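R.M. (postdoc): so does anyone remember the format we settled on? I'll just put the structure tokens first.
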């Protein structure tokens, strides 16, 4: 090898046999720990914002409500998720491909830039210099250092994306990996390619905003800002979806030994994301003036549905892979024996399944419906939107990342997960809390409750100017609060378990991985019992996914009903007599 002069240190993973480069592993650890720290910050702000949005309580005053709402959005959707994605790229690149990480020094520089940028932006927000909310829409103007923080963070992320591409090249050139890359790397590659486009969006959005905030640019057109912002704002969500789906395949393999039913179809689906997702950015601009109806309709129909098709393919393919794997073990009776006998006590598995369900049923269906040009008019800027995206990035992506953590701890940090009993219930608390919260937010929004509103019924205004919503709106806001509290408890448990395991867990060298050998016992999870021998023999050569297909048709049924209901609600807004 050409690089023999540089002492690259490797270890061989006892559990997977992978050859792990020490620098890649150290960078993975640092990024993962930082992710969890920022999640803790985001979650603290979430609780305060949540309790403020409950009309009887109104915990924070208006200034701190908007300040911490900004803080919550930035720390959750940028810092937590992207730091974790950087960790995933270090895993899906050099570690999965047995290769070295080229130029590890750049990885440390990137981590420093990202940490510095995140801290800078957070400090500016908390000092009251950036009360601009997540979108930072002009003409709201923040302190220049806030935009600089975002820009530094993005530059750091760009470097890590570059290192990921470089590690693919190095793995190929040095022959540490032959053949086509595994699905998890392919998913990481999808996310990394979309990230390039997204970071371009970040440049055209935040660099002008920076120059505007220091006074070099005299004015920033709000409509142009919004158009540019959604070139970063929407595709970055597709990075989250691609990373989440890659984690789904990985977790399905780690927890029950599942392999994709058709790798080719799954790869095509990932490619559809790259080709068609950016067009969907237009759904954020459907009520904006200045853009023609033809532009809006073209951009939120036709090709956009090819990206949705991709998610539907993964939503069929991952559960199908799980069903096939469990039926192979002999859980072959009827439609659903495999489902009942799945390893529900393994937190990585329950997180995976809840993530698929919440992302698909809540996030997915509401996304397609609210992104429809006509229906957008009754959902835009209502609490329905907040319900929708907590279904995707929280119930979907965040929960999947939580599940993966239960393997990162033993495999990368080589620590036992502490408190197995609590770890077992953690995904259920978070997931069920999120289900209650997101559904209630969507319902409150259906009764007209706006998003980003400190005081929906203007309780401080003179009597004649107050506004009262229909009673169900208040009921759903109460349920939102209860579900949110449950999720905050689940989230806090995740942070505690992770931090305690990483810093004080007992050392573990080897855990069983079902795709490579015996069934896992992560965090004291119940083992998958070996199935009935007869069923096992019968199932061995047979791809039977009747259970998954039944669930998928149930999903489509809910989809159709909800879509039609929304057209009815739209018609009710403007009755024709
Ligand atoms: C237990 C966890 C969480 C709870 C209880 C929670 C709750 C909330 C609430 C009540 C709002 C305010 C909505 C409004 O007034 O319009 C909000 C906004 C938001 N949340 Fe969360 N959230 C949680 C986790 C997350 C996570 C993990 C993410 C991202 C990965 C996230 C991303 C956002 C974003 C982007 C906003 C919008 C900020 C804005 O409007 O500028 N949340 N959340
Ligand atoms: Cu979008």
């Amino acid at each position: 090898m050409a690089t023999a002069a540089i002492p690259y240190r490797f270890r061989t993973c006892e559990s997977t046999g992978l050859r792990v480069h020490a620098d890649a592993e150290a960078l993975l650890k640092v990024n993962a720990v930082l992710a969890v720290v920022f999640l803790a910050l985001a979650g603290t702000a979430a609780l305060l914002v949540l309790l403020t949005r409950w009309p009887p309580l109104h915990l924070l005053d208006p200034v701190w409500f908007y300040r911490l709402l900004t803080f919550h959005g930035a720390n959750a959707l940028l810092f937590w998720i992207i730091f974790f994605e950087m960790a995933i790229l270090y895993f899906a690149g050099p570690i999965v491909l047995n290769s070295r990480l080229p130029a590890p020094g750049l990885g440390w520089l990137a981590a420093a830039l990202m940490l510095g940028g995140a801290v800078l932006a957070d400090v500016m927000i908390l000092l009251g210099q950036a009360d601009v909310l997540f979108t930072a829409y002009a003409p709201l103007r923040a302190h220049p250092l806030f935009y600089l923080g975002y820009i530094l963070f993005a530059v750091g992320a760009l470097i890590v994306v570059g290192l990921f591409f470089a590690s693919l090249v190095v793995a190929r050139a040095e022959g540490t990996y032959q053949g086509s890359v595994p699905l998890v790397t392919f998913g990481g590659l999808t996310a990394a390619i979309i990230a390039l486009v997204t970071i371009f969006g970040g440049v055209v959005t935040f660099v002008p905003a920076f120059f505007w905030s220091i006074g070099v640019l005299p004015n920033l057109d709000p409509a142009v800002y919004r158009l540019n912002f959604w070139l970063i704002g929407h595709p970055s969500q597709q990075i989250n979806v691609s990373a989440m789906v890659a984690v789904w395949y990985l977790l399905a393999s780690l927890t029950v030994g599942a392999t994709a039913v058709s790798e080719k179809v799954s790869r095509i689906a990932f490619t559809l994301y790259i080709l068609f997702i950016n067009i969907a950015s237009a759904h954020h601009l459907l009520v904006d003036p200045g853009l023609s109806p033809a532009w809006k309709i073209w951009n939120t129909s036709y090709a956009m549905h090819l990206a949705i098709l991709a998610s539907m393919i993964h939503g069929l393919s991952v559960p199908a892979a799980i069903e096939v794997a469990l039926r192979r073990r002999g859980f072959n009776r009827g439609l659903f024996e495999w489902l009942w006998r799945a390893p529900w006590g393994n937190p990585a598995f329950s997180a995976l399944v809840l993530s698929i369900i919440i992302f698909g049923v809540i996030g997915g269906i509401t996304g397609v419906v609210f992104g429809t040009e006509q229906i957008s008019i009754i959902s835009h800027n209502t609490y329905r939107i907040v319900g929708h995206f907590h279904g995707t990035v929280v119930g979907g992506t965040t929960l999947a990342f939580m599940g993966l953590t239960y393997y990162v701890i033993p495999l990368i940090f080589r620590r036992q997960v502490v408190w197995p009993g609590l770890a077992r219930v953690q995904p259920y608390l978070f997931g069920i809390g999120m289900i209650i919260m997101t559904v209630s937010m969507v319902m409150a929004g259906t009764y007209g409750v706006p998003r980003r509103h400190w005081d929906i019924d203007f309780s401080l205004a003179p009597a004649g100017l107050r506004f009262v919503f229909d009673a169900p709106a208040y009921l759903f806001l109460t349920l939102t609060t209860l579900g949110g509290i449950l999720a905050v408890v689940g989230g806090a448990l995740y942070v505690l378990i992770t931090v305690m395991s990483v810093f004080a867990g007992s050392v573990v060298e080897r855990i069983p991985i079902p795709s490579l050998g015996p069934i896992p016992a992560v965090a004291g999870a119940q083992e998958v019992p070996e199935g009935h021998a007869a069923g096992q023999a019968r199932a061995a050569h047979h791809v039977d996914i009747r259970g998954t297909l039944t669930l998928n048709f149930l999903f489509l049924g809910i989809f159709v009903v909800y879509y039609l209901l929304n057209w009815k609600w739209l018609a009710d807004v403007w009755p024709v007599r």
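R.M.: ...and that's the designed sequence above, right after the tokens. Also worth knowing: The chain has two domains: 16-178, 244-527+534-570. The two ends are 80 Å apart (CA to CA).
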